[in-house]
Every structure is written in structure tokens, then in C-alpha cells.
Write a structure and sequence with these properties.
With 332 residues, the protein is mostly helical. It is built from 13 helices and 7 strands. It folds into 3 domains: 47 residues, Orthogonal Bundle (Arc Repressor Mutant, subunit A); 57 residues, Arc Repressor Mutant, subunit A (Orthogonal Bundle); 175 residues, no CATH class. The longest helix is centred in the N-terminal third of the chain and has 18 residues. The chain binds a DNA duplex (21 and 21 nucleotides) through helix 3 and helix 6.
Length: 332
DNA sequence: AAAAACTGCAACCGCCAGATA
DNA sequence: CTATCTGGCGGTTGCAGTTTT
């Protein structure tokens, strides 16, 4: 049985695409859409194999491609995702709308990898090269070495405990967990949850986080200084009338002020919001479906609630908050 | 100025899984 | 069940432009 290969076919062009070829392919796809790639060259009048056409479209001609430098936000995300997923570029690219797996792979190999090595961090393990292993992060190792056949969701479930109140980071599991994982867990989980939140249990040691994101969580007492969103009565949260109110269950503390509710307009999505004393930010929420969410991550998925004293408390409210759906979490 | 070394990136290659005949 | 086709993926190559020697 002979393997089908572009290279085995005769008279097919290889190498860089000419503007004329691009134009032919673009015209064809614009008119007929993406379908059977193997028939594209013939119909489009190209001396290329279908595979080559597909690649050219995906990596260069697609209209929704984002060009230019990677933003700092994108770089951070790639680093975090790579730590979780390893070289699964397609999965990483799925979280960066407008970027291709090839682009991210190239960027990693030519830039991020070197950047990490300069910082003395092993780009494969994301750990300090001089690390003598006495603070092993078994969970991250699990991610790095896990088979690609394990679904991402399952991997995350391995390390995080999800329940219907949100994401629990117990002292045993979270103390050595990179915040990138937490963040990613949230990203992944929040696709299906209308409102997702994190509860820090007392006793976790934020200092043992090994990424520079650790500072976000560096605070001595989470329970006393964070609004206790995990226990607020979601039944009483008001998702109607285009407003999002949390007005119960917040615990006061010495580091927070007297403000006891927050609300923001949901018309057209969350607007950036400041919450007195505790910087709350909901940026660009405009989600209506999982597809949209997955396709437009960067623009619509930074919904962080930043609480004072350099701690971060992440909430990921989802598209279903945008009016029609009012599912809320229930206490066990 | 020229050659060598380096860099970034587009494209190719080979493997794999799923679909289909 | 087997053979074949197809698309998707990650690793790798090779080229063009840039920098260094």
C-alpha cells in the first residue's frame, strides 16, 4: 500500500507561494469555502497538493489571522499553556485567536525558549535549571509527561477539584501549583460554567508558587481579606436587568473598605469595572456561546478580579450572564 | 566590502487517527 | 477486516534577510 504523499506526485510546485498562487487560492476559497482540500488545487488551477493549499490558507491567507508581534499577554498565555500542555501547539493556538499553531511554535522556538533559558529556566520543565528537585511539583510533571491522548479536561480534573461551587484549591494541591495552571483550569472550566470562582482554603503557602505570577496570590490570609464569593448566595445574585450584583456574603476585613456590593452593566458585555478598595476588572466580556468563547479568547476572556495587597482573585463570568440565562451555583 | 554566522519564518515531511469504500 | 484517502499535528528543513566578523 503506497503512502499518499504530496512529494510523490509529479509536476507539483513546492516552496514559497507566489502572489498569483495566493490570489487563486484566496479567490477559490472565498467563493466556494473550505471543503475537500484534495480537490482544491484542480479547481483553483494550482500546481500544488491539497495539503499545501490547506497549510497556506490556515497559516497565511485566512482573513481572521492576526499579524504582528505577540503581545505580552499572549506571551504569558503561551508560557502558561506550554507549561501545562507541552508542545501541543494546536491546543495552545486554540486559546489564541488569530494565531496559528505554526506561528506559536516558531515563536516559541525562536524567542520564548531562549528567553526562558536566559532566565535560567528549563523551557521543557519550566523549572529553574539549577533546581535540585527538593521542591518537586508532581502535578506539573504529570502534565508535562502526560500522554496526549488524555483529554485536557481530564488532566485538569486530576489536579483541581471542581465542584458546583467552583474550583477548590486545597492546601495540599494548590501550594505547589503554578498559577498558570490555575488560570488555565479556569479558562477551560469556565467554558461551560456561567460563573466560576476560586476558593482559597486557608493553609496554602503562596510562597511556594514557582512562577512569577505567584505574587498575584501572595497574601498571608486569603480568608480574611478576600470577599467570600464562594459562599455568597448566588440565588440572590441579580443577573436580570443587565446588572450583576453581589451583595451578600462578603466578609469584611482590615484590608478592605466598607463597600459591600459590586455591580456593572452587562449590556454589550462587562465593562471594565473598579470596585472600591478592591480593584475589580471585567474586561470585554461578550460571550454568547462556547464557540465564540473558544474563538475569541483574547478579546473576551480576561475577567480578573484583582483584590488588594497583590493578591488576585479570579472570577470568570461567562456568556450566559448576558441576559438570557441565570444559572447560579448552589451550595452543596 | 565580502564572507560567515545567525535568525525568523514559511513550508515541507512523515506519522497518525478517523472516515469511507 | 483491510486498504485507501484525507485532514490534522508536531518536528524539521531550507531560504531569505540581518548581523557579525
Amino acid at each position: 500500500m503506497g503512502r499518499h504523499s504530496c512529494s510523490m506526485k509529479q509536476k507539483l510546485r513546492k516552496g514559497l507561494w507566489s502572489p498569483e498562487e495566493d490570489e487563486k487560492l484566496l479567490k477559490y476559497i472565498t467563493r466556494f469555502g473550505v471543503g475537500c482540500w484534495s480537490s482544491v488545487p484542480q479547481h483553483a488551477g494550482l500546481q500544488r497538493c491539497g495539503k499545501s493549499c490547506r497549510l497556506r490558507w490556515i497559516n497565511y491567507l485566512r482573513p481572521d489571522l492576526k499579524r504582528g508581534m505577540f503581545s505580552q499577554q499572549e506571551q504569558d498565555l503561551i508560557l502558561n499553556l506550554h507549561q501545562i500542555l507541552g508542545n501541543r501547539w494546536a491546543k495552545i493556538a486554540a486559546q489564541l485567536p488569530g494565531r496559528t499553531d505554526n506561528e506559536i511554535k516558531n515563536f516559541w522556538n525562536s524567542c520564548l525558549k531562549k528567553k526562558l533559558m536566559k532566565q535560567g529556566i528549563d523551557p521543557n520543565t519550566h523549572k529553574p535549571i539549577t533546581d535540585d528537585d527538593h521542591v518537586k511539583d508532581k502535578k506539573i510533571e504529570f502534565f508535562a509527561s502526560s500522554s496526549s491522548s488524555i483529554p485536557l479536561e481530564a488532566e485538569l480534573e486530576h489536579a483541581f477539584h471542581f465542584n458546583n461551587r467552583g474550583l477548590m484549591l486545597s492546601s495540599s494541591s494548590s501550594s505547589s501549583m503554578d498559577t498558570g495552571l490555575i488560570r488555565h483550569a479556569l479558562l477551560s472550566k469556565s467554558v461551560s460554567d456561567p460563573l466560576f470562582l476560586v476558593e482559597f482554603q486557608s493553609g496554602m503557602d503562596p510562597i511556594s508558587y514557582n512562577s512569577n505570577l505567584a505574587a498575584e496570590f501572595h497574601q498571608t490570609s486569603y480568608e480574611t481579606s478576600l470577599p467570600n464569593l464562594a459562599s455568597f448566595d448566588h440565588q440572590k445574585a441579580d443577573f436580570t436587568n443587565n446588572s450583576f450584583m453581589i451583595n451578600e456574603g462578603r466578609e469584611s476585613s482590615s484590608t478592605t473598605n466598607n463597600s459591600s456590593n459590586m455591580n456593572t452593566s452587562l449590556s454589550g458585555g462587562f465593562q471594565p469595572m473598579t470596585f472600591e478598595g478592591e480593584m475589580l476588572q471585567f474586561k470585554g466580556l461578550n460571550l454568547k456561546s462556547e464557540e465564540k468563547f473558544l474563538g475569541q479568547w483574547e478579546h473576551h476572556h480576561m475577567h480578573e478580579v484583582q483584590v488588594n495587597n497583590a493578591s488576585n482573585f479570579n472570577i470568570y463570568p461567562m456568556g450566559s450572564l448576558l441576559g438570557e440565562h441565570t444559572h447560579v451555583f448552589h451550595q452543596d
